[in-house]
């Protein structure tokens, strides 16, 4: 999702294992065109030394929420001191809003399809429908 308008940029469906979300994020950012500096936001699950190191190696600034529960965060002050980090943390809820919309309106709460390919197609289709509704709302606001 991009932060400015809350539109979904890419979807990627995996089986949930607890670690696979970070792997999927790395696969998606590898597809980005090189050269331009970008940021990547995420929740506390993404605050690991390995993930942050991988992002920095790809010239991506990790704007993930700091997990300081019984440990030190992998995201240090060179990232958190900038105003853009705070903006990313405020906009992070839009990702959860899109998931909420896709579950309630897009009927993904209880999927009737089986298999990664079929469910992945439905997830991408529902994400596109979310973007169309979001664009309609954005256009109405201008």
Structure description:
With 142 residues, the chain is mainly α. Helices cover 49% and strands 7% of the residues. The protein contains six helices and two strands, in the order H-E-H-E-H-H-H-H. It has helices at 20-30, 49-57, 77-80, 83-91, 93-104, 116-140; strands spanning 38-42, 60-64. The chain is globular and about 40 Å long. The two termini are 21 Å apart. The model has no long low-confidence stretch (mean pLDDT 89).
Over all CA atoms, what is the radius of gyration? 16 Å
Q: How many helices? A: 6
> Ranges with pLDDT <50 over ≥5 residues?
none
Instruction: Give me the strand/helix succession.
Output: HEHEHHHH
- On the 0 to 100 scale, the average pLDDT is 89
Largest sheet: 2 strands, parallel
Give the strand order of the largest sheet, numbering strands 1, 2, ... along the chain.
1-2
How far is it from the N-terminal to the C-terminal residue, by CA? 21 Å
- Percent strand equals 5-15%
Shape: globular
DSSP strand count: 2
Category by helix and strand content: mainly alpha
Helical content band: 40-55%
């Amino acid at each position: 999702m991009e932060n400015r308008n809350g539109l979904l940029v890419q979807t990627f469906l995996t089986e949930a294992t607890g670690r696979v979300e970070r792997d999927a994020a790395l696969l998606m950012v590898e597809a980005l065109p090189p050269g331009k500096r970008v940021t990547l936001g995420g929740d506390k699950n993404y605050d690991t030394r390995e993930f942050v190191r991988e992002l920095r190696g790809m010239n991506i600034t990790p704007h993930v929420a700091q997990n300081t529960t019984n440990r030190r965060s992998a995201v240090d002050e060179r990232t958190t001191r900038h105003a853009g980090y705070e903006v990313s943390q405020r906009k992070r809820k839009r990702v959860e809003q899109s998931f909420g919309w896709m579950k309630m309106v897009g009927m993904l709460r209880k999927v009737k399809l089986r298999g990664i390919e079929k469910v992945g197609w439905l997830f991408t289709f529902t994400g596109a429908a979310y973007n169309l509704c979001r664009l309609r709302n954005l256009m109405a606001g201008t």
